[in-house]
Amino acid sequence: MKFLVFSVVLCAFVATSTAQTKSPVIVRMQTALGSMLSVVRDLSLANTALIKDTEDHIALNSAYVAAEELYQLFPTFGTQNSSLLPLPSRTRLESAFDSFRNAVAAWEGALDGRTVENLTSTFQNVQKEFLNLAGVVYTL
After folding, report:
1. Would you indicate the residue range of the signal peptide (predicted)?
2. What is the Cα–Cα distance from 111 to 43, expressed in whole angstroms?
């Protein structure tokens, strides 16, 4: 998790220092990604609590609330904004975003079963795909 935070903070620093040369769509995506970082942190805290106690209803509720907050940010990466990007960038973004969205959906499925193994592996995939998405967005 520390690597995740460090990576995105570093990317945010680079993005803000070059924001004047970026299109408004890219700046919106980078800003949304910064917001996603906070939500992914909340997901991580809820996931850790659920791994410790799979019947922790407060952590389960927190996980669902954070997931809903994450879904509110998804339209920023939709076709309305991505269609304004050059084709190679759009293809990379759509692929990374689809992988992240699928990882989040798999993690939500693991919330239903609440086994430690599934919660651990699916959330590790969420983190991996988030870093991949961050790498793509910040190189736009």
Report:
1. 1-19
2. 11
Q: Rounded distance, CA 122 to CA 98, Å? A: 15
Query: All domains of the chain, ordered by start, with CATH?
Result: 2-138 (1.20.120)
DSSP annotation of 114 reads -
Distance from C-alpha of 120 to C-alpha of 100, rounded to nearest angstrom: 16
Which two three-digit tokens encode residue 24? Answer: 């408004």
For residue range 68-117, list pLDDT tens digits in order: 999 999 999 998 989 989 999 999 999 999 999 999 999 999 999 999 99
In terms of Cβ atoms closer than 10 Å to its own Cβ (0-12, 13-18, 19+), residue 65 is middle
Within its chain, how far is the Cα of 88 from the centroid? 21
pTM: predicted TM-score of the whole model, two decimal places? 0.83
